[in-house]
Design brief:
By secondary structure, the chain is an alpha/beta fold. The chain has a six-stranded mixed β-sheet with strand order 4-3-2-1-5-6. A hairpin with a 5-residue loop joins strand 2 and strand 3. Helix 7 packs across helix 8. The longest helix has 24 residues.
């Protein structure tokens, strides 16, 4: 990942903290999802092994990740603290240690978090208040940064070019919508 990419993600994390402050959220926990890709550029897959991006309103963002996968984050260690966990460790206990002193905190958790992880976090941090991260993430995702706008421009241009080629070279008559969609998708 380039330094400019890290700059985009660093900026998004700063915007996240500002939105958390505006909404009274102390911590944001995001597990593998499009939101994790948006905030960190890390395409982790959802599994029984916890990977979690934690964003404190005050302090450094962190990632809790299985040791085997932690090397995939080496190029992001200047924007997040990486905490890897071994097979015999409890990743939820590691999260609780990292946010030690979070009693009474509002912790916004992404909707894609497995219930088993959330229940364990609630058991380990019973004084914290767990809420949905959707209000925070929705506000962040609605406002597009320059990189997103450029990506939209590129996608739009490619889609327009594919459509022009489609209507100029393909016979639509006799095709089902699904068939026509498949042909168009192939051109894109």
């Amino acid at each position: 990942m380039s330094e400019s990419d890290n700059g985009v993600f660093r900026s998004r994390l700063e915007r996240t903290k500002a939105e958390m402050d505006r909404q009274g959220v102390d911590f944001l926990f995001v597990t593998p999802s499009s939101d994790m890709i948006y905030l960190l550029g890390y395409p982790a897959h959802s599994s029984e092994r916890l990977t979690l991006l934690g964003v404190p309103r005050d302090g450094e963002p962190f990632v809790v990740v299985p040791t085997l996968e932690s090397v995939r984050l080496n190029d992001r260690n200047d924007i997040v603290d990486i905490h890897s966990w071994e097979e015999t460790q409890s990743p939820t206990e590691l999260v609780a240690r990292i946010v030690e002193g979070a009693d009474g905190s509002a912790i916004a958790v992404s909707d894609q978090t497995w219930s088993g992880f959330l229940i364990k976090l609630q058991e380990i941090m019973p004084e914290s208040r767990f809420i949905s991260a959707t209000p925070v993430l929705r506000e962040l995702r609605m406002i597009k940064d320059e990189q997103e706008i450029e990506n939209i421009r590129i996608a739009s241009s490619k889609t327009d070019a594919a459509w022009e080629k489609f209507v100029a070279t393909e016979k639509i008559a006799g095709l089902t919508e699904r068939q026509a969609g498949q042909v168009l998708a192939g051109l894109m």
